[in-house]
Amino acid sequence: MSEDEKLLKEAKKLPWDERLTHKNWKVRNDANIDLAAVCDSITDPKDPRIREFGPFFRKAVADANAPVQDKALDALICYLKAADADAGRYAKEVCDAIVAKCLTGRPKTVEKAQMIFLLWIELEAVEAFLDAMEKAIKNKVAKAVVPAIDVMFQALSEFGIKIIPPKRILKMLPELFDHQDQNVRASSKGLTLELCRWIGKDPVKSILFDKMRDTMKKELEAELVNVTGTAKPTRKIRSEQDKEPEQEAVSEAVASGPSEESAADIPQEVDEYDLVDPVDILTPLEKTGFWDGVKAAKWSERKEAVAELTKLASTKKIAPGDFAEICRTLKKLITDVNIAVAVEAIQAIGNLARGLRTHFSGSSRFLLPALLEKLKEKKPTSMDALTQTLQAMHKSGCLSLADIVEDVKTATKNKVPLVRSLTLNWVTFCIETSNKAVILKAHKEYVPICMESLNDGTPDVRDAAFSALAAVAKSVGMRPLEKSLEKLDDVRRKKLSEMIGGSDGGPPAALTSGAVSSSGGIVSSTQGGSLIKRSAASMLSGKKPVQAAPPSKKGTSAKSGTSKKGDGTMQLKASKPVVVEEVEPAEMSLEEIESKLGSLIQTETIAQLKSAEWKERLEAINSFKEQVEALQQLDPSVEILVRLLCALPGWSEKNVKVQQQVIEVITHIASTASKYPKKCVVLCIQGVSERVADIKTRAQAMKCLTTFCEAVGPGFIFERLYKIMKEHKNPKVLSEGILWMVTAVDDFGVSLLKLKDLIDFCKDTGLQSSAAATRNATIKLIGTLHKFVGPDIKGFLSDVKPALISALDAEYEKNPFEGASVVPKKTVKSSDTPSLSSGGLDSLPREDISGKITPGLLKGLESSDWKARLESIETVNKILEEANKRIQPTGTGELFGALRGRLYDSNKNLIMATLSTFGGVASAMGPAVEKSSKGILLDILKCLGDNKKHMRECTLNTLDSWLAAVHLDKMVPYITTALTDAKLGAEGRKDLFDWLSKQLTGMKEFPDAVHLLKPVASAMTDKSADVRKAAEACFGELVRVCGQETVSKNLKDIQGPALAIVVERLRPYGVLQETFDLGRTTSTGTTSKMGSKIGKSTGPADRTSRHGNRAGASRVNPARSSRQETLMSVQDISIQSQALINVKDSNKGDRERIVVRRFKFEEPRLEQIQDLETDLMKYFREDLHRRLLSTDFKKQVDGIEMLQKALPSIGKELIEVLDIVLRWFVLRFCESNTSCLLKVLEFLPELFEMLRNEGYMMTEAEAAIFLPCLVEKSGHNIEKVREKMRELTKQIIQSYSAAKTFPYILEGLRSRSNRTRIECADLVGYLLDNHEAEIGGQLKSLQVVASLTAERDGETRKAALNTLATGYKILGDDIWKYLGKLTDAQRSMLDDRFKWKAREMDKRREGKPGEARAALRRSVRDSGTDLAEPSGEVSRSLAGPILNRDIYNNTELPMERNVNLRPVSGTIGPSDWNEALDIISYDSPEQSVEGMKVVCHLLAVATNDPEGSAMDEIVKDADRLVSCLANKVAKTFDFSLMGASSRSCKYVLNTLMQTFQNKTLSHAVKESTLDILITELLLWLLDERVPRMDDGSQLLKALNVLMLKILDNADRTSSFVVLINLLRPLDPSRWPSPATNESLVVRNQKFSDLVVKCLIKLTKVLQSTIYDVDLDRILQSIHIYLQELGMEEIRRRAGADDKPLRMVKTVLHELVKLRGTAIKGHLSMVPIDMQPPPIILAYIDLNLQTLAAARMLTPSVPGQTHWGDSAANNPAPATHNADSQLKQELAAIFKKIGDKQTCTIGLYELYRITQLYPKVDIFAQLQNASEAFRTYIRDGLAQMEKNAAAGRTPSSVPMSTPPPSSLNLSSPKFGPLSPVNTNPLNEAKSVNNKVEPSHFSLPPSYGEDDRGGNTLLSRGLSSEHMELRQQLGEQRNDRLPSGVTSGTLEAIRERMKSISLATTVGNTDPSNRPLMSMNGNISHVVSSQDPGTEHSSIENTLQSGVLPMDEKALSGLQARMERLKSGSMEF
Q: How far apart are the first and last CA of the chain?
């Protein structure tokens, strides 16, 4: 036995689902074959295997292996043949899978797919089929669209429009007419022609022709000529097929007569009105000024107003509404003095009647008298308009003959003859267009009117009367006119007979025969056509004639090949005959009766019946009875016998005995005849019902009525009795008749009755009667009904009197509900009597509420006003109440859709009201709600995710109502989906599990509950204890109702810890470990390992295993490890300790040698794929390669994620198998799964970044494996994928080699895909722009790009021209020699483009084309290097620094291309800046673009002219500009989301980009404005709707780049403060609406993650920007954030690893690290004295201790351990006054001037002080200094002023001459400068009299000077010092002594002194290092070469008792000066 046979044999033991998803295709193929055989053997549609197999086909039909897929389709066909309509539950997912995978396959596959679709229609899954077709026709592959159209064509032609609603097909067709593929267009035309056969040409033309191109119209017009005849269905749905054997039996019993089936199948004319959507005309009418116009004095204005109404009402279907006021206005206008206005009003009425139809009935009756009166108008225009309007009112159903009787009577008596004649003409039209039944009812009213008009003196009136009578006769025959004709003279009688006879001759017969033959032709044509599957395109005359084939003899035996019901099921049988029975009997005279009676009854008997003696009549009736009983063939004579008895002795017989005998004879005839005609019942029922009232004849009459019920059914008898009993004057007739109804209901049940009519009759007539006997009889009847229909009947009687209700309740108790157990005592003989109600549990009538679901109601449900929405919901509840909570599903689809939207309402109360309404709808609709609601139960279940208990309770109540209407098995799929939704929340899952447990508790057995096993098992591992408890309770009930065997068989889908828990719970039920192991597919060894893990976890092996788990998890993110473990399968747990990649015995070199080096991509061959699978299994861990080789894309994504997480730790191993990985990626590129491809494209950049970090470059073999595929697939049809591939290619170019990559890209230019060529052309441009030096030797290949300029595709030409323009920019005119031969047209195009490029370069001041390259050539030539042929690494190193580009420039290109900004003239847009800002602020998004154009233009002008004053003016308005634009962002995006262009979005982002590219403008933006802008941008970056917008990917890119630009250029202090503030939860009102389905917590988390990323970017560069920011402000914002959280919340979040808190701690840590203890000097805005102390102080202390412990800083003052130490020696308050601060600052500056190393900085700072405080006398502080020193300072200040005027900073100023050392600190004048001796109170008074603070600001260069000095000094550091720093482990400025800042010259100088001192003395102990950054005694100037002197000076300073200035005060000086500036401190 071969291995395959063994495998197949073993596989047969597996469950079906494992066989069907087995990784070996042969196993799957064999499983599908077996499944088909099993399905073929099923004969009972209720077989449980039908339900078991249903879910398998969704995946089976989507199999990647074509033969397997083919067998799966065969199995599905067999399944559908065996199933019934219940299988429709699987239709949607299976149809979707077929659409996605089968319609593009092989022809046989497509044919089978079409066959399956038709079988789904047979099973009544029409909605699922049409939904799938809507998706199919949107497929971008035309090959898949054509079969979809064909299958719709076949479905329509076979099943007809009763099954396939044409309305949905009509909606699909318009988008197919303009399809780019001609086959699709041809098929759509064929489908249109088929629709014409079914619904007529005119409806199709009017609906579709407006949406076609003219060419298509002409083609279809030509084809429509060939469409002849009408269509007829040839195939039936399965439920109708099941009834056919019964119909055949009946048809064989009756030999003659026309066929009922053929009569039923005669195609009915489809009304176009039903195919179009209603249009609301009331709203637009209000906007037209109609009401003002109709009241205008000028007739022209009145006419125009009414004409507007006429135009609006000309639509085919008008939405119902309140037209009462309009009709009142039109009625007045009918009589307008101006005839034109009147005619327009009449035409408007006609249009309203046509558009509203029955909704216009009331208004029509209101307008009719005025219209008939207007007939007196003789003008032709008025007469024509009136005639058309009156005819339209009747034809549209607004008026019937019964409605207009009184108005016609009035009009025929009008004194104007014209009114009388035209009215009768209109009546004639109404009679001719009415059906026979209506005329039979109404003729008694109209014949007298016409007879009276025959005597009119006007000939026209008489002729009109004759026409009306003739119309009546033609419709119902002459009998109704016989009595009237007797009154006419011979002349008139003759004329009338001629009129009737002339129209009654041959033509009708000919017409009938023609119709019959036509019908016969159609039948034969469809029969013949059913044998061949026709395509839609075959309908076209060029393909195949539309006319059907001639009649085929084999047509009657034709059957569908897809039928499972046997050969006879689908045959077109000889249908049973149907007699269109006339119910209303025609009048017949006694003579006619006697003549037709013949010898049937003896003449003597008839004569005696006429006798006046009752005894003779009695004898005669007895004789009559005997003769009738003796008749052998009674059936032919039934009607004539009954007519005779009705005439003789007749129902007016007074003798009781004769009456009794008459009734008995009729009873005998009715019971004996095989078919008793209904017209006979009509003849007798009036008389019999009257006899019921007589006690003497009651018994016989009741028996007769019962016999009638047996003959024709009780439904017909009851309907006739309602009217008779209601109108009869004798109350006994009513009461006794109701009593008979009681017995009839008891005998026949309610299945044949119209219960609604019966209940209405009881309620309106019986219970309202004044006679007690009648009320009691009615109560008894209702009680009997209760026995059959149950307590639901009470809902129909809720509005009766309380006394009657109590009587009814008593009757209910006497007749308890028995339901289906009640068996009818009598049956109906007539087999064709329809069952009017189902009887039993659901027999109460349901009302059709579709008419009440108006567009106004649906619109109200979508209203923006919550009150309107609530009112609409209450209206729905009211409709349910009015329908007695019993409704039909008809027409409720739109209502469900509208109510679905309210489940996501922002108002929670409305959601709860909607839930209650859904519960009411479910209760009212019953089981039909499951199909009608279209999956809305899932939306209801989502409401359990709400955190409010009331909401969840309301949801559970709705579920209870749903369960009462629908069985739980219908709800299980939705509940399963809801339980797996993460958004449901712990409380929602708990409540749902509790509800499930409650429902399962009441069940004994429920196998469908096994589908809940997976979510229940998953919940048993939930982190919420309540959820786990509820899930375990539900699990126990689940095992009880399903059985432990069923549960154990379904463990395969459960993995990880959940599986272990389930097995543990199943052990008490006796489930063995082996059962658990069966659900796995791993080897025996793996199974044994798993068994040890599931057992007890106490042994050493288990501890080792768990230790291994922790070790493995330590490589990945610890925060995700617990969640990842739950996702792991049991197999993975057992092997996770193994290495992910095993590179042992790796033969990478051997593998690379067999790689074929080619540039062109070829699809991987089968053997290559097999080799790849072998390599993956060899080198990759089992769980990884199993995922990578899976056919399920989700598992492939899991595999990539495993690689992605392990990437940092497996770099070297991955390099060894890089070729294998790349081959696998190529395989994924070739597949069409977008999710997997996006994951690959997410991983690849990380992979290549890792390779770059490892210093690894791809080999040529690896490049040959991957690059051809990447280039070929770069033209993907999804923009997002193309972008990712584009960026990946650029990354490879950077890391691999531009020169080596270039040939692959050139090969892509030859691709068949236009998109690929466009992408490759852009990449060539990128290479020219960035790597021209590297590819210089291959420039001749540009001729391939040049050849693309001749392509037909415009986008390809454009890309090629752009690339060559880039080349022209780099190469100049030299490019022409690389382009090869060009046509004149190509050369002209290129010349124009090059000239344009040159102009653009000139505008941007980029020089001339080729100039940079020429300069480079000259420089290289001068250095002796030839640049003509650069190659290799030399060219790469040469090109790097010269041709480097800013990374953001490339990102901004799309915005520049889309928004072409030009100077705007005053005539076109706004003329100045202010006007432009106003337009941006107040105008609409589209109009504001003009304002933005002006702003961009002015910004560009100001930027290009930095010397001018324009920029200064703009800076003043910068904040206003950004504020306007920030507010405009949301408006423009909302505007675009409503369907508008994204043009305004691009403009607003581009304007912001231009603003923030300028640092001056950026810094002028206020913090509040920046807050609004950043918040808005981040919110739109998170909005899920943006990618779906027009150019959504470009907008996202622009938002990203703008955000980066803001972070780079805006004031960094404001940016920090804003972002830290945004870490708090965002106000819900700031989120864009409509909100997504995500909870507010999830959205805030995403937002804070984005804010954290922005803070990370700012923090990364904090070291270089530390002096650009106001540390006091930042620390204040951190303090506020921490205080708002509180310590408890901080501890909680720290445990949860909260990102925002972690980010704030990181920022604070960086600040402390960079500033050391000096950070304490920046707490001026933090209340450090508050109790308890601020939280920030504890964190600063903690960071200082941590950094000090890491030897990264040391304390600044010995013994300073707490915050009070810094002020311990200072008696003054913590906040010094301005005087002391200024003096401290001057003291520090004088120290710097006294040191020759820092004198220049000191002088610059002193100069700044003089600028800031011009009124402070600096020299007054130097009274004791020497004159030389003061002169030095004076000269230095003058020099600084010159330098500042020249724009020079201290970094560029030469070192000043050292100052003289003559400053004496012993003077008392300098005493206050020391912090110890400061007296702030006295000094404040003295200074306050001199100095007046003014508003000022520190210049930006103040902090930059320090950095500049730092840079200069760092260059001068000796190598010895640098080596020493490295030996001490110091990096950058992180380990400076405490108190020394990293940004000043003196800090580095002092650090060098300390290092020198440590080196000289040999003491490296940090405790012996100098503790201060500057000497307190300025007179002792220390030299850097004399460390001993410095040491002694420090000692002297400490001994002198004057402490030096703590750097805390100096570092906080800038913040304090800002406070001085703002006026918060006064001198």
A: 106
How many other C-beta atoms are found inside a 10 Å radius of the C-beta of residue 86? Answer: 14
Cα separation, 506 vs 1647, whole angstroms:
84
> What are the phi and psi torsion angles at 611 (to 5°)?
-65, 150
Q: Which of 546, 542, 549 is nearest to 225 (CA)?
A: 546
Which one of 670-674, 785-789, 1167-1171 scores highest in mean pLDDT?
Answer: 670-674
pLDDT score at 179: 81
CB 316 within 8 A of CB 356: no
For residue 940, what pLDDT band results from cuts at 50, 70 and 90?
very high
Q: Which two tokens stand for residue 452?
A: 């009276």
* 1050-1080 residue pLDDT tens: 887 787 777 878 887 777 765 444 444 444 3
Q: Which residues, 6+ apart, have CB-to-CB distance to 1281 below 8 Å?
A: 1234, 1237, 1238, 1241
Query: Residue 930: enclosing H or E segment and its boundaries?
Result: helix 929-932
Q: How far apart are CA 625 and CA 609, in angstroms?
A: 12
Higher pLDDT: 194 or 953? It is 953
**Unique residue bearing structure tokens 């429902």:** 999
Is the bond preceding residue 1732 a cis peptide, omega within 30 degrees?
Answer: yes
Give the 3-state DSSP-derived string for 1581-1634, with helices as H, strands as E and coil as C: HHCCCHHHCCCHHHHHHHHHHHHHHHHHHCCHHHHHHHHHHCCCCCCHHHCCCC
Tell me how many degrees the CA angle 1930-1931-1936 measures, rounded to the nearest 5: 65
Is 1 a residue whose pLDDT tops 60?
no
pLDDT at 705: 94
Q: SS3 letters for 241-267?
A: HCCHHHHHHHHHHCCCCCEHHHHHHCC
pLDDT tens digits along 691-708:
999 999 999 999 999 999
Strand partners, 847: 887
Integer angstrom CA distances of residue 286 from 289, 310, 1299, 1531:
6, 14, 70, 28
3-state SS track over 1390-1413:
HHHHHHHHHHHHHHCCCCCCCHHH
3-state SS class at 89: helix
Report d(CA 98, CA 72) in Å as an integer. 11
Q: Specify the pLDDT at position 1770.
A: 39
What does the angle CA 1538 – CA 1540 – CA 1545 come to, to the nearest 5 degrees? Answer: 100
Are the CB atoms for 528 and 555 separated by under 8 Å?
yes
Bridge partners (DSSP) of residue 591 are none
What amino acid is encoded at 1311 in this protein? S
DSSP letters of 1871-1913? GGGSGGG--HHHHHHHHHTT---------THHHHHHHHHHHHH
Query: Distance (Å, rounded) from C-alpha 1650 to C-alpha 1579?
Result: 9
pLDDT above 50 (res 1443): no
pLDDT of residue 1634: 54
1776: left (phi > 0), else alpha (psi -120 to 50), else beta? beta
CB contact at 8 A, 1262 and 1302:
no
Candidate ranges 695-699, 853-857, 860-864; pick with highest mean pLDDT: 695-699
Amino acid at 857: L
Is residue 1463 predicted with pLDDT exceeding 70? no
Helices 949-965 and 908-925: angle between axes, nearest 10 degrees: 10
Lowest mean pLDDT among 350-354, 968-972, 979-983: 979-983
The predicted-structure confidence for 390-430, as pLDDT tens digits, reads as follows: 988 888 888 888 888 888 888 888 888 888 889 989 899 89
| Alpha-carbon span 450 to 469, nearest angstrom | 7
Separation between Cα atoms, residue 1356 and residue 1344, nearest integer Å? 12
Report residue 118 as tokens.
């038709």
State the CB neighbour count (10 A cutoff) for residue 782: 29
| CA separation for the pair 128, 120 (Å, rounded) | 9
Query: SS3 for 1309?
Result: coil
CB of 830 within 8 A of CB of 675? yes
Residue whose entry in the numeric block shows the structure tokens 């400025």: 1933
